[in-house]
C-alpha cells in the first residue's frame, strides 16, 4: 500500500489523522514510536534546524532531501510543507513530481506570495497571491501527480493576513473548485474561535486541515466533533521540545561545572544506539564479516 493510500485509509478509519511535525529522520522515527498517524515535513522546523528564519531561505533541494531521508526511516505517511510551491505553477509541477517520487503522501501549498514570511511572527508581511493565480497552482499540482491518492492540500492564509472569514471561505471554495483534495486554514489567534467559526460556515465538500499551534485548546476530540476536520497537525512541537531540552541540559552542565547532575534527564547512549538500530549492525557483522 502506498503511503498516500495509507493516510487516506487512516482518515477513513479514525475520522481524524494526528500528524506530528518533524525536521529529521530521528524526529520522524520518534513521532512514529509515539503513535502519530503521519509526519509533517515542516519548513518552519527545517529552517530552525539550520538556524534560519522561515522566510523561503531553505531551498527545495534542502527540504526535498530531508523529506526523502525521513521517508526512508519511518513507515508513516509524510505530508510535505512546500510553502508557496517554490515559485509559480511551473515550479509547482516540478515540485509535486519530485515529492511524490521521494515518498511523500501529499503536499501542502499556501496562497502567499514568494518569498513568504512565517505565519505566526508578530507584524510579519503576509501578502497573498490572486485567487486565479493560486487556482492555477492547484490545477498544475493535480495534473502533475501520478497517483490520485497523493494529496494536494491547499492552504489559505486569509485569516493570518487579517482579511477575514468571508475572504478565507471564498478562497477555500475557489481552491476546492480547482481540484484541491483538502483545505488547510490557519489562524494566529490564541483561541480556537476563529477556526471554529470558519469550520461551522464551511459549505464545501473538501475536508479541513488545521494546525492548532497558537490555539492549543482545540483538542482532537473537539476537532472530531465538527465532522469536517480530518487532519490535525502539530506544526512545530518537535523543534520546540528539542530546543527546550537542549537549553535545559546545557545550562545544567554550565551551572554544575560538568554533566554529573544530568542523570536521567537526558537519553542514555544505549537509547541512541537503539534508535540508530545498532543491533541490526551487530547482527549483520556476525552474519557477513
Description:
With 289 residues, the protein is of the alpha/beta class. The chain has a single domain (3-242), classed as Phosphoenolpyruvate-binding domains (TIM Barrel, Alpha-Beta Barrel). The chain has helices spanning 3-14, 25-34, 43-49, 60-73, 89-101, 131-144, 165-177, 193-201, 220-226, 237-256, 269-275, 278-288; strands at 17-22, 38-41, 78-81, 106-110, 151-156, 182-185, 208-210, 229-234. It has an 8-stranded parallel beta barrel with strand order 1-2-3-4-5-6-7-8, surrounded by 10 helices. Helix 2 (25-34) crosses helix 4 (60-73), helix 5 runs parallel beside helix 6 and helix 6 packs parallel to helix 7 (165-177). The longest helix is centred in the C-terminal third of the chain and has 20 residues, at 237-256. The chain is globular and about 60 Å long.
Keywords:
8-stranded parallel β-barrel, 289 residues, 47% helix, 8 strands
CATH T-level topology? TIM Barrel
Adjacency order of strands in the biggest sheet: 1-2-3-4-5-6-7-8
**Cα-based radius of gyration, to the nearest Å:** 20 Å
**Portion in beta strands:** 5-15%
Q: How many separate domains?
A: 1
Overall strand count? 8
The parts where pLDDT drops under 50 for at least 5 residues are none
Alpha-beta content class: alpha/beta
CATH homolog superfamily: Phosphoenolpyruvate-binding domains
CATH architecture, please? Answer: Alpha-Beta Barrel
Which percent range fits the helix content?
40-55%
Dominant shape:
globular
CATH class: Alpha Beta
Sketch the topology as an H/E string, one letter per element: HEHEHHEHEHEHEHEHEHHH
Major sheet, described briefly?
8 strands, parallel, barrel
N/C terminus separation? 35 Å
Distinct helical segment count: 12
What number is the mean pLDDT?
A: 96
Amino acid at each position: 500500500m502506498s503511503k498516500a493510500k495509507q493516510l487516506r485509509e487512516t482518515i477513513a478509519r479514525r475520522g481524524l489523522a494526528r500528524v506530528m511535525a518533524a525536521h529529521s529522520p530521528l524526529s520522524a522515527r520518534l513521532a512514529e514510536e509515539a503513535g502519530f498517524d503521519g509526519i509533517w515535513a515542516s519548513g518552519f522546523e527545517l529552517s530552525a534546524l539550520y538556524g534560519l528564519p522561515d522566510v523561503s531561505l531553505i531551498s527545495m533541494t534542502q527540504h526535498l532531501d530531508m523529506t526523502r531521508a525521513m521517508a526512508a526511516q519511518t513507515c508513516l505517511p509524510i505530508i510535505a510543507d512546500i510553502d508557496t510551491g517554490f515559485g509559480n505553477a511551473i515550479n509547482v509541477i516540478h515540485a509535486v513530481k519530485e515529492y511524490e517520487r521521494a515518498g511523500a503522501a501529499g503536499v501542502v501549498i499556501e496562497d502567499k506570495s514568494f518569498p513568504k514570511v512565517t505565519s505566526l511572527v508578530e507584524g510579519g508581511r503576509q501578502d497573498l497571491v490572486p485567487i486565479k493565480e493560486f487556482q492555477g497552482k492547484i490545477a498544475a499540482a493535480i495534473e502533475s501527480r501520478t497517483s490520485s491518492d497523493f494529496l494536494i492540500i491547499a492552504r489559505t492564509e486569509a485569516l493570518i493576513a487579517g482579511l477575514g472569514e468571508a475572504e478565507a471561505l471564498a478562497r477555500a471554495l475557489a481552491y476546492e473548485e480547482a481540484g484541491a483534495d483538502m483545505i488547510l486554514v490557519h489562524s494566529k489567534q490564541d483561541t480556537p474561535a476563529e477556526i471554529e467559526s470558519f469550520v461551522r460556515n464551511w459549505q464545501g465538500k473538501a475536508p479541513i486541515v488545521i494546525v492548532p499551534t497558537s490555539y492549543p485548546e482545540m483538542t482532537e476530540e473537539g476537532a472530531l466533533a465538527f465532522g469536517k476536520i480530518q487532519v490535525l497537525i502539530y506544526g512545530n512541537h518537535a523543534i520546540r521540545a528539542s530546543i527546550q531540552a537542549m537549553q535545559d541540559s546545557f545550562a545544567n552542565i554550565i551551572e554544575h561545572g560538568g554533566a554529573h547532575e544530568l542523570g536521567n534527564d537526558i537519553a542514555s547512549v544505549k537509547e541512541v544506539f537503539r534508535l540508530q538500530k545498532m543491533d541490526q549492525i551487530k547482527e549483520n557483522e556476525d552474519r557477513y564479516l
